[in-house]
Amino acid sequence: MVATPSSTHAVQSASENAPVLVVEGVSRAFGSLAAVTDVDLTVHPHEVVCLLGPSGCGKTTLLRIAAGLESLHRGRVAIDGQTVAGEGRHAVPPERRSVGLVFQDSALFPHLSVADNVAFGLTERSGRRRHERVRALLEQLRIGQYEDSFPHTLSGGQQQRVALARALAPAPRLMLLDEPFSSLDARLRNQIRDDTLHLLKDSGTGTLMVTHDPEEALFMADRIALMRDGRIVQVGTPMELYCQPRDPFVVTFFGDVNEFFGEVRGGTVETPVGHVDATGMADGTSVRVMIRPEAVNVTVQGEPDGRHDRSHVVMSKLLGASSLVHLCAHDAAGGESHLHARMPGVFLPARNQPVDIRLDPSQAFVFPLDEQQAGGASSAQADGSPLRAQGWN
Ligand SMILES: Nc1ncnc2c1ncn2[C@@H]1O[C@H](COP(=O)(O)OP(=O)(O)OP(=O)(O)O)[C@@H](O)[C@H]1O
Ligand SMILES: [Mg+2]
How many domains does the chain have? Predict the structure, then answer.
């Protein structure tokens, strides 16, 4: 955690809508490895932005550059309107950046009580006001009863709550969180996420939070910046990333999909589960069609009869809040494809159950194949089948 007493004054200094963090054209390499390349990003007050991406894509490096714990090679970082790092400039050290930091395993001061840990950055306040601030934060994070406890007597989840309170106590302009919940078990994680989200939104601070978990990003973020190989692939609201993904990587990062390869004809692509809109793509374009399992809607038709000449169920699994149905879909030309449907609640049709399959077009995405992929796809089509399914079997 790094936060300075002076940061409390900074809260009033910026205009309401100005970004608290501006990252412009930032790059950082380690030897020949480009860890972060040409990244632009902003975070506004009251906003939670999640940096999402696979392991090693540069999330922590970017967060550390914003914090001042890592240098940059190109670009600029500004916090609360002040440039704190840029090419050829002397970088402002972390403790003078008005940032609160929380990491996966934030080290608390072992010799200080919970209250003294949280009060650590509050040296300018009167004793009474300091205590009030500490108490309020501990109550909001539901750890008020541990005020006088020492860190080693607390569970991992309680210690993370203390770390969050300590980082927030001086009211920093910017909170930088690096996988703060990842060492906690699933139930505890959900609770702390929820409490943290409310606390961050109420506090008015801007937050940049690293996670590799797409569900966590969807839960926490006002905007998500999805990274791959050091670059930001897409930035937008959770809705934009989920419903208007820019490329196949964005689609698959949020979950498994049914994939087919085909060709555009008259502004649509034919798949075993119906036509998918491809407006604006030229006839003959080789495409990859990605259909989320929740876009595949299943209704049972008649009784299981062992006939395999129409679309039917292969198996059904309950996943908890939803059910996953493995299907064998039959298209008009008699071809068969294996695909997955995710249905809400308990929906477990028996093996061989004949079904109708309908498609929700809002969760089906079409991308042109690059030349190499297109070569593979068109040779597969030479056998007469209009489409080739990939993935699940
Ligand atoms: N100090 C360093 N020296 C050399 N290489 C580094 C250093 N820090 C990071 N890297 C490399 O930079 C790349 C990005 O690392 P980074 O820690 O930013 O990834 P990440 O997205 O946070 O991954 P994870 O999800 O696993 O935490 C990785 O290949 C990593 O090995
Ligand atoms: Mg990391």
Answer: 2
> Is the pLDDT at 8 greater than 50, yes or no?
no
91-129: buried (b, 16+ CB within 10 Å) or exposed (e) per residue?
A: bbebeebbbbbbbeebebeeeebbbbbbbbbbeebeeee
Q: Does ligand 1 come within 6 angstroms of the Cβ of 59?
A: yes
Ligand number nearest to the C-alpha of 61? 1
| pLDDT given for residue 380 in this prediction | 30
| Ligand 1 atom having least distance to the Cα of 63 | 18
**Ligand 2 ion: Cβ-proximal residues, 5 Å cutoff:** 60
Q: How far apart are the first and last CA of the chain?
A: 48
| Residue 361 confidence (pLDDT) | 87
Residues 161 and 193 in one domain: yes
Question: CA-CA distances (angstroms) from residue 45 to 194, 224, 272?
Answer: 19, 15, 47
Task: Tell me 151's DSSP state.
Answer: G
Ligand nearest to the CA of 55: 1
**53, 37 contact by CB (below 8 A):** no
pTM over 0.85: yes
Phi-psi map region of 230: left, alpha, beta (phi>0 left; psi -120 to 50 alpha): left
- Asked, for residue 2, whether it belongs to a domain, the answer is no
Domain shared by 110 and 65, yes or no:
yes
Q: What is the pLDDT of residues 221-264, one digit of tens each?
A: 999 999 999 999 999 999 999 999 999 999 999 999 999 999 99
Q: 168 CA to middle of ligand 2, Å? A: 21
Is the shortest distance between the CB of 32 and ligand 1 below 6 Å?
A: no
Domain of 355 in residue numbering reads as: 256-390
